[in-house]
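User: Could you go from structure to sequence for me? I need the amino acid at each position, not a summary. Structure tokens:
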């Protein structure tokens, strides 16, 4: 069942919950993400940030509530009285305009950077190899890797591999990009190059949902910051409201702990 169109957000999470067995890890989540909006999900480890993102990608089945992607229900078909899982074809249709970048790069080791970017263009989009290579090279240039197109993952730094992973998602021309702590597996000196690519995407109007521990990125780039704790959204607001305004005690404690851990780098 499609959601009625009325200034329709790209992602619309409605009263969504997720349980693993008897343990509820997300509780009554409501979240709307509009076109060209950057939403950063922050919170302590185990707060449900990555699980929420995985539910939005339907890599995890959510237990209750609804998620709509561009107005179409994700993961389930409720046209009948009994809710049932979507078929693989139906699920892929709803997710067709969604890209995701994980903590780990998940590149094919036997393919060059260009090959990693173009494989889906050939197999899924049915582009010719020549057209795919042309597009792939343009996207690698966008993430600053023109000179690394013929390199294999083992020949690339972690930051370069993550940028290839971003380019691979961009090649499919998604409407929304999901990032699950994309810098957490990187050496500190390589974090900046990945964050810069993400800043450039935001400036270009890409809709993004980002799970991050990079508070500086959230403060500078996000349109909305969402603070989760114990599977609930406790606070949501602009970066100014989250980082500079009055804060509930739990958010204050979280940000203070973050500042204490990173004091050496301030």
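Assistant: Here is the amino acid at each position, in order:
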């Amino acid at each position: 069942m499609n959601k009625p169109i009325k200034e329709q957000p790209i992602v619309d999470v409605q009263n969504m919950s997720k349980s693993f067995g008897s343990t509820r890890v997300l509780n009554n989540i409501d979240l709307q993400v509009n076109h060209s909006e950057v939403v950063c999900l922050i919170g302590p480890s185990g707060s449900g940030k990555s699980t929420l993102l995985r539910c939005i990608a339907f890599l995890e089945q959510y237990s209750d509530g609804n998620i709509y992607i561009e107005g179409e229900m994700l993961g389930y078909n409720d046209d009948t009285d009994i809710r049932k899982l979507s078929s693989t074809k139906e699920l892929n249709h709803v997710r067709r305009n969604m890209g995701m970048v994980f903590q780990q790069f998940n590149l094919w080791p036997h393919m060059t950077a260009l090959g990693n970017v173009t494989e889906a263009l050939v197999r899924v989009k049915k582009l010719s190899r020549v057209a795919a290579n042309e597009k792939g090279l343009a996207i690698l240039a966008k993430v600053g890797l023109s000179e690394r197109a013929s390199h294999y993952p083992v020949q690339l730094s972690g930051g370069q591999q993550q940028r290839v992973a971003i380019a691979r998602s961009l090649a499919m021309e998604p409407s929304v990009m999901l990032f699950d702590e994309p810098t957490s597996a990187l050496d500190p000196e390589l974090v900046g190059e990945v964050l810069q690519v993400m800043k450039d995407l935001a400036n270009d109007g890409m809709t993004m949902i980002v799970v991050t521990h990079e508070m500086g990125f959230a403060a500078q780039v996000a349109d909305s910051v969402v603070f989760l704790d114990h599977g609930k959204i406790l606070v949501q607001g602009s970066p100014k409201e989250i980082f500079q305004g009055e804060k509930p005690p739990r958010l204050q404690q979280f940000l203070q702990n973050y500042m204490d851990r990173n004091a050496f780098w301030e």
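One structural detail worth keeping in mind: The first helix runs from residue 49 to 56.
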